[in-house]
Amino acid sequence: MAAKKKRVVLSDPRAIRALAHPARQRLIDELYSGRVLTATECAELAGLTPSATSYHLRALARWGIIERAESSADGRERPWRAPATSLVISTKSTAAGRLAGHAMVRSSVDRVLEQFAELPADDPWDELTLMSNNRLWLTKAETEQFNRELTELIERYRQDRTATSRPASTRRVSTMLAIVPTGKPPTED
Predict the structure, then answer these.
(1) pLDDT digit string (tens) for 92-113?
(2) Long-range CB pairs of 17-20, under 8 A, 24+ apart, other chains included
(3) N or C: which end of the chain has fewer CB within 10 A?
């Protein structure tokens, strides 16, 4: 099997909008964690019928977000997989891209909030749960460096760890990072 590429980068607003559906978000989470799943398995995860799930899987495949994996030995099952280890959304291109990005972010934030609510109070990892909101004063160059360093940090922990290939003592941890410049840009001197 060919090695996976590092990342899929989406910049087309239509492709970004394809991510906004909660069921699609759930499937992307699972597939990008390294799992290879059939439409039936995906349907169970998404809480949809297999035919509705197949529609969503084909829509994601149209934009290169997911792809077909090798068929099973008997050829009856045609599983799906992520073509890369990470999915990056680039919304800087157009107003439509930003709107599509907003829809996708809203769906992602909703999922993280659900995960907060689903974590039992007596979970031994509960003390590690964190939601942090920070305001930093950074130059454009510092923001670029900050983004690069955080991405490198995440990649360091993601390396060679998937749902099917990971140390026994690990547990999936959801992270969400948003870097959003606010206010007016400074005037150039």
Answers:
(1) 667 776 777 777 777 778 878 8
(2) 17/100, 17/103, 17/104, 18/59, 18/60, 18/62, 18/63, 18/65, 19/60, 19/65, 19/89, 19/104, 19/107, 20/100, 20/103, 20/104, 20/106, 20/107
(3) C
For residue 101, being part of any structural domain is answered with yes
Backbone angles phi and psi of 95, in degrees to 5? -60, -40
Which CATH number fits the domain that encloses residue 79? 1.10.10.10
Structurally, how many domains does the chain consist of?
A: 1
In a domain, 66, yes or no: yes
The boundaries of the domain holding residue 35 are 5-121
Of 139, 145, 146, 143, the closest CA to residue 189 belongs to 139
Residue 53: closest CA among 72, 70, 86, 30? 30
Query: What is the value of pTM for the model shown?
Result: 0.65
pLDDT digits (tens, 9 = 90+) for 10-52: 888 888 878 878 889 889 988 988 889 999 999 999 999 999 9
Q: What is the DSSP string of 97-145?
A: HHHHHHHHHHHHHHHHHHHHHHS-TT-TTGGG-----------HHHHHH
Is residue 188 in a domain?
no
> So what's the pLDDT on residue 83?
93
| Cα 18 from Cα 84, distance rounded (Å) | 17
- Written as six digits, the tokens of 24 are 């699609």
